[in-house]
Fold this protein.
Amino acid sequence: MKKLFSLRKIVCLCLALLMTFSLFTVSAEPTVDAADNNTSGETALEGYELVAESKGTKMFADMSTGLFKLVTADGNVYNSVSDSMENDEITVGKNRMAYASQLIVDYAVVDGFGLGGLINTTNSGIGCMKTVEEIENGIRVEYDFSIIETVIPVEYVLVDGKLNASIITKDIKESKDSEILTINLLPGFSAASAQDTGYIFVPDGCGALINFNTGKEFNEYNKLVYGGELAMPTEDHHTDELGEIRMPVFGMCQPGKKAFLGNIIEGDGSAYISAMAGNDTFGQNVCSAKLSMRTVAEEKFNNANGQLVAFYRIGNAKYNLDKFTVQYTLLGADKSDYSALATAYREYLIGEMGVKQNDNIALINVDAYGALEVAANFLGFKYTKLIPMTSYEDLTEILGSLKDGGIDSLSFRYIGWQNDGITNKKQLKKNKLIGTLGGNKGWKNLQSYVEENSIEASYDADLLTYRKSTLNNSVSTAFNKKAVQYIRQRSTYTKSITIDPYYLLLQDKVVKNAESYLGSINKSVKNISLSTITNTLYSNFKDDKSYHRSDFPELTVKILKSYKDAGYEISGDNANAYTFPYLSRIYNAPTSSSSNSLFDSDVMFYQMALKGVISLTSAPRQTEDRIGDEYLKAVEVGSALLFNGIYENATEVRRLREQYLYSADYQLWKDTAVAQYKEYAPLYNSVKGKTIVSNSEVASNVMRTVFENGVTVTVNYNHEDVSLDTGTIKARSFEFTKGGTAQ
Amino acid sequence: MSIKKISALILSLIVIASVLVLPVSAKKTDDAPYLGYEYDNESRSVAAPITYVHEKTVSYKDLGLETAISTPTDIMRRENVIYVLDSGNGRIIELNLDLTLKGVRDTFVDSEGQPVSFKGASGFTMSKEGIIYIADKENQRILGFDGNNTLVKTITKPETSLVGFDFEFDVDKIIINNQDLLYVTIASVNDGAFTFTQDGEFLHFFGKNTVTKTVDVILNFFKKKFLTREQLQKQMASTPISIANFDMDDKGFLYTIAATDKLQKSSAVRKLNFKSGNIFEVNGVVKDFGDLEYDRLWWNYNRFTNFTDVDVDDLGFIFLLDVGRNRVFQYSADGQLIGTFAGSGKKYGLLQSPVAIETAGTQVYVLESNGNIVEYKPTEYATYLREAFLDLDTSDPQKAINAWNKVLELNTNSLYPYYGLGMAYEKLGDYKTAMENFKLSNSKAEYSDAFREYRKQFIADNLWYLLAGVVVLAVVITVATKFIKKKINASSNAAYSVLENKYTFPIYTLTHPSDGFGQFKYRTYLPSWGISAIIVVVLFFTNVIQYFGTGYCFNDNTAADYSIFSTLLATVVLYVLFVVGNWAVCSLLDGNGKLKEIASVTAYSLIPYIVSQLICVVLSNFLAGSEGITLTIITAIGVIWSAMLIFVGLGAVNQYYAGKNFGTILLTFFAMIVLALMMFLFFSLIQQVLYFIRSIWDEYQLR
């Protein structure tokens, strides 16, 4: 069998970088010295003509090269490419050209013979012709890459004082034998030089900052928005992948000077965020968005000689929207930190995406885990059965004992309360209660308890995944194999052979099931938690049913809208930005980044943008990577607290996929919950529904947040007491003031 | 002011300035880009809280050094100072525990003031008097420098015949013990450590693997043949292993590690006492260290664990640095895994090429080959778990219970808290709770001990009831026996006794095999397919009951691993093979036995075995582990009885004399093997065909 594969001629690629821009254009470019542009930005604009003006921001373009500059009312200049490359003695190699370009294109040459090598992109003759034309409020540039016979049109327009840069994907002309993989749009937009101070913001997990010129070794940040491509699962990981991007934004701040926020407003379902800080070989600090047109899949085989051979194939699904648009919001000296970026993004969410302000969740939230499927046997015949971890009535016990402890503000999300328990065995089509959890009778008791005590309840439904693979119902890889989602062995990060994998449902089935499930939901349910669909998207590379991830947000929105129209409140879990207008709560909001060594600090950007708009809870205490900081992190940004809760059979999860519930037995944490409630409730209640104005580090590992009503909280993450001008804060503790008086 | 003082002042100013300008890379919160896990008793990784998190990383720039640290090879701590051996520059860097620079020692001279270089040195240590001994590998010598960087000791290759051959004195790693003796490993002589006095006198080898005797090798061979899977996993130490690195604790135990093969179990960590006996080896079984799971990628089936350094902290916990996955493993003094942390990658807390490890208090420091020093601090979970482990042998069980409950609160997956609670409750005399906990922690031996005590207590508490029960049972048995005897004797004047009818015949043959099976020849209605089938079915279920019902002390089975096919194979298939095999052999060798007769004889003869097994299952629930001999005796009686019945019965139906009968039974076994082989070939042929079809399908799909 192995030999057969070695004889095959498989579709192969050669990857190459292509610059849009040849060297002479760089040198011809006028330089702008950012330091003295406050007096007059216009002096540095020789050769540029005014093409658009909006809310005081002017756009000047060089009609021969397509380069442009934006000049804001307060005199700040934003260049479309790096403007300091001429004086930059640090940057070496191809990066010199790359970041003085408006586009960087990665493409694959389809040759059908073995693996191709890299094409040397610095050859003269490569480059591109440009046609620049003026359009309403901006310019349209067509980039003609003669070497791959590809034309990419891009429009740059000013709208409401913001720059909208759009790749017109529907008008891209490609040749037969080369295919575009990614297009990095404005890679050097407003790049900061080695002399500048400031930081880059990337939305990794909760958000992270990369200081300019931090001297770290070459390490480019490049991450797919909303998580990696699940239809192309990779088997070999060596570390845990944390900190998926949940908001399609990025930005750069030069405090006291200027800042910008980039926001992918069209095509965020298939985009990368990319960033690089200056180091010994790179004298620039850049961040940008990158359109992902196609995805390359890799498959490994042992050939007849026992050598490992990798085959590549381009997935047959490609970017499917008409445009890819990044909106740049330009911020002045008084709004030049990450708090201002969060505020700008929040304004976009409320003003343009129509997110309604609705932040009223209870402080203590329990994630109750219902039925667990375990292996059993009868006279040696194996079968699986559901056992209760938290039955309907057990849940009232848990809630009751928390109430007895003095917790008045309480809500829960119930996971594994229906059908196959915590994870779906079969695809979820109809809602059925579980007999072993108490059936109809137990359910009624739970409902009357919930009503009597006016406890907020949310019931979880997973519309995407299931364990029992049936023919033709799951998505496939580019090699036409089922895209199996393996559970990883914790020691090696490779697939577990003892825990069943799961599968992702075909997109059209998702729509169908969502519809039939909606019609079957138990009458008592008012708030439905659609956890997976609010944080997962994927393509399908099956030949006859190919589907690209760029379409998935629209599918999700359609489903969420139908649920909302049917009168349900919807809860999300670690949710992606496109779901925000439909959610009333977000459980498990990200509180950490991926710890990439490129980062200098984590910021709670997700919460800073959403606090006061959508109800948020922290990540549950003691799970996976989080080590007891969850409480302090919640306090820092005014999030509600979340606890994983199970009532019995806690030791049953040890060998199962649910083994992450190792600290969920409610008896073991209820005292902690009560203590935290008593300490945190006064602060929490005073910032409920209030947005965050600013967040900053006032001393090493001491964070301060100011809410819109003036409430200020200072959190000391250190293991030692810290003295500040406002007094001493105890180790791993916090203090807050309401309008000037300490509490 | 002397030039030296001025330069020191300038240096310190530079240091202060650089600290102000370049803050150390630190992250605000305790997140870790790796997962926590422990191993359960089946060597499977199980989720656990993370034990250590990244505190900070410092590079030479952060320290304010002008010259980059080059190929650092070793790190050590004495009191509150950390020393880094900057081998490429031939200098020693001194750090405070918060990883700020204390000083740089870069000018070393001999007694005459001539400079001495040790570039390329691979290890160092420091005596109580503050003399630093450096294993100068390049120059094949050990150099001892005093606090003023002046050479005071030089040790070169010993003039001794002990080693027995010519070797390079390429000294690799060096430590000093509490009796001021130097232990040195030599890269080219890898079967032990050289011991020297500080004056350079060679004493002896230490930690050399004792050469395994031939007898032991043979013994091991048989052990491997007959041991269960679990026992075999605890691999025997039959090959000598080298010392790659070592450390010594306060009590004088030497901890050594050896480089391992990529697929080999990492049983290469040893804790040696002064006689070089391995504490981690009990009855020839060595403890496993490192990752017990393999990569499951078929192209990369690998174990990866490859220890390069070991450090024992002040409390006796063992830290092992694994360069296979760039991970740190922490073990208790008894070799129980506390947890692992770090991994490969470019993230905070991950390592790229670690070289050496050192501890100070609760903190752990890892030296990387690029000169970075990474500091880790324990999480709440690790702190509690370490405390609880230290309380394991405490005389205050209540204290231990509190400690283990704290661990349990953070991790209900771990087996340790249940074990610890079991031990504590046993000390308190609460055997029932102890048993429950030992069961949860899967500790059979400890469970068995607690069970014995519990049984003792139970019997003492319920003595009178038990005695009454015994009396009642005795009366019932006596009466019943009398009744049955009476019934049998009532019809004793008939040609055949009551038992000699078709349905009770299996009982009759138990004690009258020759006569009973002989009757098959003329009372042809006696052998029965139906009764035989029932007995074989009972045998099958006996096997199932045995699998699930055997008492906890004697039951190594896990319900999840049960396979109905192996039970079928061990009962029905084996039975059919034997019957068919014997029938085939006997047909060729003038046997008179018919298939039905042979089948009946074999089935009826199995009754003693079945009964003995059922008795064992029941008894095993009341016996403690050490009383297992009783079960063995009962099983032996059942097996011998059944074997005797089969032998006599087959002789009777085939009408063979004893010798020929014996011969045909031996041939039967041979025939069974042939039959099994044929079946195997048949199935594998089918498999081949399926595989072929599958591969065509796969190729079709990929084209």
Remarks:
- The two ends of chain A are 73 Å apart (CA to CA).
- The longest helix of chain A spans residues 666-687.
- The longest strand of chain A covers residues 150-159.
- The CA atoms of residues 20 and 127 of chain A lie 5 Å apart.
